[in-house]
Amino acid sequence: MESINLIDSFQEFKDFKNIDRPTVISVLEEVFRSMLRKRFGTDENCDVIVNPDNGDLEIWRTRTVMEDGFSEDDDLEIELADVAKIDPDLEVGDDFIEQITLESFGRRAILAARQTLVSKILELEKDEIFKNYKDRVGEIVTGEVYQVWKKETLVLDDDGNELILPKTEQIPADYFKKGDSVRAVVDKVEMLNSNPKIIISRTAPAFLQRLFELEVPEIFDGLITIKKIVREPGERAKVAVESYDDRIDPVGACVGMKGSRIHGIVRELRNENIDVINFTNNISLYIQRALSPAKITSIKLDDETMRAAVYLKPDQVSLAIGRGGHNIKLAGKLTGYEIDVYRESSEEEEDVDLEEFSDEIDGWIIDEFKKIGLDTAKSVIALTVADLVKRTDLEEETVEEVLGILRSEFE
């Protein structure tokens, strides 16, 4: 029977897409009511009954029995002479109830209903995926890499839903191939041309936060709070934590015994260096901790311009700045202050290695000085511009610029 085929196909579709039963019944009933309206002009006098257990369908139509010649609307009324052929016991004013079989609609109507059914289910499925993931923004999801493109990677979740991992949301060291398992955080969910687009990210601070919640029970339980996270994905991250229980060391709890807790996070983030910092409202102390592992001598704050002048011994400057400037950049983001680093100067200050100026002077210029045995700032300053030009392959303008940089170190 066509009716059985239609319902069976619907049941298979419903089970595969995992749409809840009440929605199934509602969609099915609406499809058949639409068929009734097309055929009879109205469905007000029709009852559509769907058995929620097995999907069986019954359609009943009720019309009022009228005297012969007094029926004005055949869709709502039926004449006594016509009823007598079917049920002679009925009288004028009674309700004539008849069952409508799906086969009576014809093959074309049934095929159209099937198409409508598929279309409605697809729309429902898209809405369901959108609503589900809209509520999961900020949560970690695990999926399998299905396809890798130049600008993005397609990931399928456990239900076969498509998740997009853009190249910009991947850690630089990430490399995926089909079949790989990948973890990321749901970053953004939007509807694009009636299709849900789910963007996941491995570079968002929220991803690192969720990893800490998974690895550190005290964070998950709320005993330790993550105040702020800043990241340079794949390079370095700084995490400010605070404990509401004096008996709990927040930094120690996050790192774990011999780094046991943080090692798993570091591996997931492709060996990203993670500094866990104890949060404090004391800005000077907070900046000092944020610039770890460098040891600061003194700090001068300007709260109006939100700038901090940090003074360090020469051997601590490179530690404060960090490789590629990541350490000082992240410290500024974490504390909200623009940090200026100064080498501490004094009359008795020791000489400074030229390598300490690598952030201001090109490496090939430093090498030129080293070739003639000048490897410290004071050894260069001790000579005149003419001597330096004569003994190196550097131009006078370059030498004067270098001397200006080196002299400012001792002023």
UniProtKB/TrEMBL annotation:
Record's keyword terms, sorted: Cytoplasm, RNA-binding, Transcription, Transcription antitermination, Transcription regulation, Transcription termination
CDD domains to which the protein is assigned, alphabetical: KH-II_NusA_rpt1, KH-II_NusA_rpt2, S1_NusA
InterPro entries to which the protein is assigned, alphabetical: KH_dom-like_a/b, KH_NusA_2nd, KH_sf_prok-type, NA-bd_OB-fold, NusA_N_sf, S1_domain, TF_NusA, TF_NusA_bacterial
Gene3D superfamilies: 3.30.300.20, Nucleic acid-binding proteins, NusA, N-terminal domain
Domain S1 motif: 138-203
Highest taxon listed in the record's lineage: Bacteria
Subcellular location: Cytoplasm
Family from the record: Belongs to the NusA family.
Assembly description: Monomer. Binds directly to the core enzyme of the DNA-dependent RNA polymerase and to nascent RNA.
Record function comment: Participates in both transcription termination and antitermination.
Entries under PANTHER family matching the protein: TRANSCRIPTION TERMINATION FACTOR NUSA (PTHR22648), TRANSCRIPTION TERMINATION_ANTITERMINATION PROTEIN NUSA (PTHR22648:SF0)
Protein name (record): Transcription termination/antitermination protein NusA
